[in-house]
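Aim 2 progress update. The chain analyzed this quarter is reproduced below.
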Amino acid sequence: MQGAVFVLGFAWLEVMAVGLAFFIYARHAADGEWISIEGSRVVVEYETAGRRERAEFDRQWVRIEPIADDRSLIEVSGRGRSVEVGRFVRPEHRLILAQEIRRALRQA
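Predicted structure tokens:
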């Protein structure tokens, strides 16, 4: 019984640490990026830690380019505004993503 107080104290500390880890995970579980073409607009929406942002671009003036190299994030820009996408895509697949976005812009 003498050590029970210490065991219970550490058990509560461990439960609190696991709870904090679940809270941090849950905060970022719904993070994501969505790119859509709506008529003459390209809409980029992204959510990080519960904060959602939206950027719209004129389809005729939008540019899709890697920021530094083929494995870097992709910059969607147009008329003085830009957004970086591709955070949730493996670096070796970002070039393919940029090509797919460009192809969709030509076809739609």
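The CA atoms of residues 37 and 104 lie 8 Å apart. The mean pLDDT is 91. These observations will guide the mutagenesis experiments scheduled for the next reporting period.
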